[in-house]
Amino acid sequence: MEGRATASTPAALPYYVAFSQLLGLTLVAMTGAWLGLYRGGIAWESNLQFNVHPLCMAIGLIFLQGDALLVYRVFRNEAKRTTKVLHGLLHVFALIIALVGLVAVFDYHRKKGYADLYSLHSWCGILVFVLYFVQWLVGFSFFLFPGASFSLRSRYRASHVFFGATIFLLSVGTALLGLKEALLFKLGAKYSLFEPEGVLANVLGLLLACFGGVVLYILTRPDWKRPSQAEEQALSMDFKTLTEGDSPSSQ
Amino acid sequence: MEGRATASTPAALPYYVAFSQLLGLTLVAMTGAWLGLYRGGIAWESNLQFNVHPLCMAIGLIFLQGDALLVYRVFRNEAKRTTKVLHGLLHVFALIIALVGLVAVFDYHRKKGYADLYSLHSWCGILVFVLYFVQWLVGFSFFLFPGASFSLRSRYRASHVFFGATIFLLSVGTALLGLKEALLFKLGAKYSLFEPEGVLANVLGLLLACFGGVVLYILTRPDWKRPSQAEEQALSMDFKTLTEGDSPSSQ
Predict the structure, then answer these.
(1) CB–CB contact B192 A119 (8 Å)
(2) Which end of chain A has the lower number of beta carbons within 10 A, N or C?
(3) Cα(A248)–Cα(B15) distance, integer angstroms
């Protein structure tokens, strides 16, 4: 770890990351406030079990998933493997919390005798969850499991990044649909009277969209990408020559 | 136009573009089918005026906006200016059709005495429309109006592309919210009985999300970007030397 040249952090990046965290924490807090103020709070063994669902999804599939995507932009000078493990672990936490949220809503529906999986929100939600799990498994097999060759990794990397961003955006869209569903089922025609709950939920919806937008911006700015470090480049060269069967070039 | 070396089109690109068009046309047709089969069709001077709104938005803010983004990937060997004008024109058509859709819903609300702009869908919709209009104006001033310098254009280009893609994705999200709203206001608890209208609208929602995903994929694949042509590179060099005040290098 010694003797590594530290790459400088782009000047504006920390402000954008801080802004994303402010948005993310505010949207989680606002989800909690919405459930506490207008939906009676949260509990597992009661009618309040449903409320576990939106809170878990806001924490897991929005905030933690978004933060997992930002790991490579934030930890620019750590060893690649450390950053990779953190990226994988944050996604595991997000998946587990989302699973709790999923169990909560299915269990609540079962106890109440409600139908499952009839709405667009639920279809998108199941799609997101399955895609997210598959993406994690494939990502783990390629990047953390030691078997995959360097050339296989670098060919898969672009798809991993694209699908990661797409699944995140689909998660944000699914959350917006769920929020709208919860609002319309309860408020109905009262929604048009600018009820405080409706206005608060609309603001929460805008926060969700903004968080998605800011994470996407940080992720896609080419000059904010994590630079390869000296020893990674050397290692990559070794891998490359090994996997492609060339003889190492003289240095 | 003579003597220009034509850049080869990546092998898979035409298939992806064809698939995006199939998705786009299917989603517009399915919106029409939904309104025709379950909402009584379309007319301006009656209760059916509302139905103008979803159809116009599906055509303008989803299909045409998506296609306008793909213009640079599809027309790879046309003169840059032709492609640019087509890009701008498709966005103008999209804006005009969206404006008709917007007038339809406000006029319908006024006649019925309904409140305006209370829902998350309407907030996101107004945001999309304003951002889209501003993006068009700024894009026109920088890229089609002859005043902007080469260096100003190239500095603004990345933001233009990012905001263009973001506004398109926000349009897709807003359409999903609107679809859900229209469904829940009419079906209410019947939505959970897997009514044919609900299932059709859910499939329409998935088509919307898929169209967004495929357009984003075509747009972001680095090796599918439109290559600069020989005379554009020469022109850029001239502009660059002119704007930066360097003397032209000898050739």
Answers:
(1) yes
(2) C
(3) 39
